[in-house]
Amino acid sequence: MRILVVGAGALGGYYGGRLLAAGRDVTFLVRPRRAAELVRHGLVIRSPLGDADLGTPPHLLSEAIDTPYDLIVLACKGYDLDGAIRSMLPAVGPQTAVLPLLNGMHHLDVLRAAFGPAAVLGGLCVIPATLGEGGAILHLAPPQTLVWGELDGAATARADAIAAALSIPTLDVRRSDAIVQEMWEKWMLLATLAAVTCLMQGTIGEIVAVGGADLSRRALAECEAIAGACGHPPRPAVHDRMLAALTEPGSTAHASMLRDMRKGVAAEVEHVLADLLRRRPDGIATPILDLALLRGRVYELQRAGA
Ligand SMILES: NC(=O)C1=CN([C@@H]2O[C@H](COP(=O)(O)OP(=O)(O)OC[C@H]3O[C@@H](n4cnc5c(N)ncnc54)[C@H](OP(=O)(O)O)[C@@H]3O)[C@@H](O)[C@H]2O)C=CC1
Ligand SMILES: CC(C)(CO)C(=O)C(=O)O
């Protein structure tokens, strides 16, 4: 199976790199700056589960794509989605499956409109990762789960083939027949984590240490009220797990959005928070999410003016 990973950033570099190290046929679609970095420093993964130094991996720019791929793993940020779609267009043929790893839900509509509903799979990742010096992939803590599936839950022949391609000992990959529900649940977790850690500019452990566990509780309830109104209330066991993680004393958990704010780079404020609030029906109050959205937008305004 020929796999094109769009974006060799934290997630694309991690999952694509692990697949490449396991002998899968992986090529990275990158832009010129990242291409130069990959040539200069190689693809480097630093992880508590084992480092990998992969040398310069197979990579190309959009204009060099000459045939469609079987599977495209899309690992850009939400704000780069339109550009990524333009870049990957020549790689999408009638049989190509597109597996997005982005947080949130809006990208599914955009991808289905661009490539047709049948091309698009659902996917989510639970992995704290970021880019370090020279573009090294820094995997910050053990989870590295990738969940994916057909959006309608069907067991298709292409899904069997993709499952085989993604199944390697170094990755925690699971196929789901309820991927849309799981993506909503992941969004609830992330939106809560982003709201509270970006508002407080600290980790869950720090917020809990100063008596702020209730902030997580209330923010999660706001997210879940919107998800419920949209037909995707979290399953009770998932709610319990999310609440425990979001109120855990000593936890170093924080959102990738906070890491982006600390680095002074673009944050997915619109994709993660604004899109969720856009779906809020009248009558549901979301004061914490509203504040978090304002905080994020002030950050983006300041960045634009800097
Ligand atoms: N990091 C994390 O801990 C987690 C992130 N996620 C989600 O995963 C998604 C990806 O995040 P993350 O990996 O952190 O982001 P990064 O910023 O680390 O990587 C994104 C990569 O996409 C590349 N890219 C953007 N547009 C194009 C294009 N047109 N062609 C080729 N490459 C392109 C960027 O390239 P360039 O270098 O040229 O800018 C960049 O390298 C986000 O939606 C995020 O919310 C989900 C779970 C955890
Ligand atoms: C919730 C978390 C940390 C899980 O991977 C995440 O998706 C993010 O911070 O973007």
From TrEMBL:
Annotated Ketopantoate reductase C-terminal domain residues: 179-288
Gene3D superfamilies in the cross-refs: N-(1-d-carboxylethyl)-l-norvaline Dehydrogenase, domain 2, NAD(P)-binding Rossmann-like Domain
Role according to the record: Catalyzes the NADPH-dependent reduction of ketopantoate into pantoic acid.
Keyword field: NADP, Oxidoreductase, Pantothenate biosynthesis
Database matches in SUPFAM superfamilies: 6-phosphogluconate dehydrogenase C-terminal domain-like (SSF48179), NAD(P)-binding Rossmann-fold domains (SSF51735)
Domain Ketopantoate reductase N-terminal: 3-152
Pathway assignment: Cofactor biosynthesis; (R)-pantothenate biosynthesis; (R)-pantoate from 3-methyl-2-oxobutanoate: step 2/2
Pfam families named in the record: ApbA (PF02558), ApbA_C (PF08546)
Nucleus as UniProt keyword: no
Annotated organism of origin: Acidisphaera rubrifaciens HS-AP3
InterPro entries the UniProt entry points to: 6-PGluconate_DH-like_C_sf (IPR008927), 6PGD_dom2 (IPR013328), ApbA (IPR003710), KPA_reductase (IPR013752), KPR-Related (IPR051402), KPR_N (IPR013332), NAD(P)-bd_dom_sf (IPR036291)
Source organism, top-level taxon: Bacteria
Similarity section: Belongs to the ketopantoate reductase family.
E.C. number(s) listed in UniProt: 1.1.1.169
Gene Ontology biological process terms in this record: pantothenate biosynthetic process
Catalytic activity: (R)-pantoate + NADP(+) = 2-dehydropantoate + NADPH + H(+)
Protein name, entry field: 2-dehydropantoate 2-reductase
NCBIfam families hit by this protein: apbA_panE
Any GO MF annotation of the entry: 2-dehydropantoate 2-reductase activity
Cellular-component GO terms for this entry: cytoplasm
